[in-house]
Write a structure and sequence with these properties.
This protein is of the alpha+beta class. It is built from 15 helices and nine strands.
C-alpha cells in the first residue's frame, strides 16, 4: 500500500468531525481555510459557524460593510484576512458575476489566497490534483522522508511543494490533502507525536534515524520587536469617550482604538502628562489621570510584543469626535481593547477616581 493510500485509509477511520467537512460548497471551504490560517480549529470553528449564519452566501458577505465583517472577526487576529475575505467576496460578485472561481489558477486571483488555500479549495471542491503544503504537511513530509531542508527557505518551499505534488492521489486529491493535514495535526504533532501507533512508523526516516525531534528544520526566527502603547480611555462629563480608526498599513488596520501614545519604553504619569501628543489632545483642560491597572499588559503578535498600559482620563469640557461610552461595543476593536472594556465594565466607571 502506497503513502497516499495509507494516509487516506487512516483519515477515513480517524478524522475529526468538523462542520466544513460536510459540504463541498466552495464559499464555505474557502471561508474555513481563511479562518483556520494562524488559528486553532477549536477557536476557528465558532467563528466559521457565526460567519455562515450571518453571511450564508458569498453575496451576503459582499454586501456587508467592512466594519460589520471586522466586528464579526473580532478576536481572531490577523485582521488582514478579514479585509481580504471581504474584498474578494465583492470581487466575486462584481467582476465574476457571482460565479465562484473553479480552478487553482483562478482561485489565486482572489486577494489573500495563496498556493495553500487555492490548492485546498481546488482539490476539495473541484477534484483538481494540486497538493496542499502547510505546517502539518511540512512536518509529515520532512519526518517521513528525512528532509533536512529548512521549511521556511525558498529552496525548502519549492522542494516540499514538488514532493507533495508527486505524492498526491490524482483520483482522490481532496481526500489526500485533508488526510495529510489531519495526520500532521492529530498524529505527527510538533511535540510528542504518537509514533508507536503511527500508520507510517515502519517506514518513517525520522523515526528510524531518531531525528523526530529535529525535523522539520527552520531557519532562524525573526527578531521580536517590543513596542510600548499608552491608551487613553477618555471620560467626558457627559459620559462620552473617543475612539479613533487605525488607517495605516500596520497592525489592526481599520479597527478602532482609544487615543494612543506610543513611546520607546514604559513611562510614568508625569512623563505622559508632558508628552506632546497628550498636550495636543487635551490642551489646558482640567483633568484627572489614573493608570487603570498597575500590571502591564503584554499582547504577543507573531513578530511584535505590545506592552500596553491603559490610562483613564477624566476631563472637563468636550473634545471632537466623542461618542457615548455605551456605543463602544458597536465598533470593531482589537481584542486588546475589547478585553480592557470588558474589565472596565466590572468597575464603577464614573466613580473610578473617588
Amino acid at each position: 500500500m502506497n503513502f497516499s493510500n495509507i494516509l487516506i485509509r487512516w483519515y477515513l477511520q480517524n478524522k475529526r468531525a468538523m462542520p466544513w467537512r460536510i459540504t463541498r460548497n466552495p464559499y464555505y471551504i474557502w471561508l474555513s481555510e481563511i479562518i483556520l490560517q494562524q488559528t486553532r480549529v477549536a477557536q476557528g470553528t465558532s467563528y466559521y459557524l457565526k460567519f455562515i449564519a450571518v453571511f450564508p452566501k458569498v453575496e451576503d458577505l459582499a454586501n456587508a460593510t467592512e466594519e460589520e465583517v471586522l466586528k464579526l472577526w473580532q478576536g481572531l487576529g490577523y485582521y488582514s484576512r478579514a479585509r481580504n475575505l471581504h474584498f474578494s467576496a465583492k470581487y466575486i460578485m462584481n467582476d465574476l458575476k457571482g460565479e465562484f472561481p473553479e480552478s487553482y489558477n483562478e482561485l489565486l486571483k482572489l486577494k489573500g489566497v495563496g498556493d495553500y488555500t487555492a490548492s485546498a479549495v481546488a482539490s476539495i471542491c473541484y477534484n483538481e490534483p494540486t497538493a496542499v503544503v502547510d505546517g502539518n504537511v511540512y512536518r509529515v513530509l520532512s519526518r517521513y522522508f528525512g528532509v533536512n531542508t529548512p521549511i521556511n527557505s525558498s529552496k525548502g518551499i519549492k522542494e516540499f511543494k514538488k514532493l507533495a505534488q508527486e505524492l498526491i492521489d490524482h483520483s482522490k486529491p481532496g481526500e489526500h490533502n485533508q488526510a495529510i493535514m489531519e495526520f500532521g495535526a492529530v498524529l505527527c504533532k510538533p511535540q510528542n507525536p504518537d509514533c508507536p501507533i503511527c500508520a507510517l512508523n515502519t517506514s518513517c526516516a525520522a523515526l528510524q534515524q531518531k531525528k523526530v525531534k529535529e525535523l522539520p528544520v527552520k531557519e532562524n526566527k525573526i527578531k521580536i520587536k517590543h513596542r510600548y502603547f499608552n491608551y487613553l480611555a477618555t471620560i467626558s462629563p457627559d459620559a462620552n469617550t473617543i475612539l479613533m480608526k487605525r488607517t495605516g498599513k500596520g497592525i489592526w488596520q481599520n479597527l478602532y482604538e482609544f487615543p494612543l501614545i506610543e513611546t520607546e519604553m514604559k513611562i510614568e504619569e508625569l512623563e505622559l502628562l508632558d508628552h506632546n501628543d497628550f498636550q495636543n489632545l487635551f490642551g489646558e483642560r482640567s483633568l484627572t489621570l489614573k493608570r487603570f491597572n498597575p500590571i502591564e499588559k503584554i499582547h504577543k503578535l507573531s513578530h511584535q510584543h505590545l506592552h500596553s498600559t491603559f490610562w483613564i482620563v477624566k476631563y472637563e469640557g468636550n473634545l471632537s469626535k466623542e461618542i457615548p461610552w455605551n456605543e463602544v461595543d458597536n465598533f470593531p476593536v482589537p481584542i486588546l481593547i475589547h478585553n480592557f472594556v470588558e474589565e472596565l465594565k466590572q468597575t464603577e466607571l464614573f466613580s473610578i477616581f473617588e
